[in-house]
Amino acid sequence: MKIDNTIAAVVTGGSSGLGKATVQALAAAGVKVAIFDINEDVGEALAKEVGGVFCNVNIMDEESVEAGFAKARAANGQERLVVHCAMVAGGGKTVGWDKENNCYKRATTEGFAKSMEGIATASFRVASIAALGMANSQPLNEDGERGCIILTSSVASQDGQMGQVAYGGGKGAVNSMVLPMARDLMDVGIRVNAILPGTFATPPMLGVKAKAPAIYENLEKAVPFPKRLGMPEEFASLALEIARNTYMNAQLLRLDGGIRFQPK
Fold first, then answer.
1. Is residue 89 domain-resident?
2. How would you classify the pairing of strands 53-56 and 32-37?
3. CA 243 remoteness from chain centre
4. If pLDDT is split at 50, 70 and 90, which confidence band does 119 have?
């Protein structure tokens, strides 16, 4: 796919972190970008900065996502690239010690289901709505490519850290979607890939750096090379390469500095 001003893109979770860096990189390449997020003030400011459009979208709500795509398409035309970074997720061990009540307790089924909804179901929701619009559009090139969908998974889907049964399970479900979805969409020329980030310097992690610098330093030391957290710009760079490289399809791409989490 040629990344230029003929392409419209949607980035979910585009107001901060990995999504914001992707928005900025796409805009710098001339792409018409729509930002999907619930943080309206920050999102509107970023959209103004990059010449894009902000859509107040809750990925947990079908009508909200549909309305976001309608607004984005009215402003920029049919999106040919979607980078899905937004999620809703919780943590907690399957069974863990409750210090307050001096007993073990289990993670709630409701909490687990919400994480699966906010990661796996939301990924399908965004991808399938985008794919329908792309499928009904003209091919972009001689390969018959109509679009590219990039989902965001996590190394937690493969490394299985403690306390991440819901998060890791949800991201694992995203991994398992990529190949069958790419095969579902091969006849209409839509590629599907996922990026599996390691530990990145996003706003939550920068909060850890401010409040608990020793913990942050240990996270940096855990990365084989380079010994630091990933930069959102590095995620954005990979997203752009996936979009540009038409032969990259149905792949799970770890971006993690070589880190492999081990159980304690």
1. yes
2. parallel
3. 14
4. very high
Residue 264 inside a domain? The answer is: no
From 104, 167, 216, 247, active-site residue:
167
| Strand ranges, E, within 93-245 | 95-98, 103-106, 147-152, 190-197
CATH of the domain at 26: 3.40.50.720
Q: State the total domains in the chain.
A: 1
- Under 8 Å between Cβ of 168 and 161: yes
Determine whether 104 is an active site residue.
no
> Is pLDDT of 11 > 90?
yes
Q: Tell me which amino acid residue 14 is.
A: G
E-assigned strand segments in 171-237: 190-197
Question: Is 219 inside any structural domain?
Answer: no
Buried b (16+ CB within 10 A) or exposed e, 47-65: beebebbbbbbbbbeeebb
- 128 vs 138: CA distance, rounded Å: 18
CB neighbours of residue 160 within 10 Å: 15
**Is the bond preceding 226 in cis, omega lying within 30 degrees of 0?**
yes
Its domain, for residue 137, covers 8-200+232-255
Instruction: Give a yes or no: residue 243 inside a domain.
Output: yes
d(CA 217, CA 237): 25
DSSP-derived 3-state class of residue 6: coil
| Angle at which helices 203-211 and 213-221 cross, to 10° | 120
Predicted confidence (pLDDT) at residue 264 exceeds the cutoff of 70: no
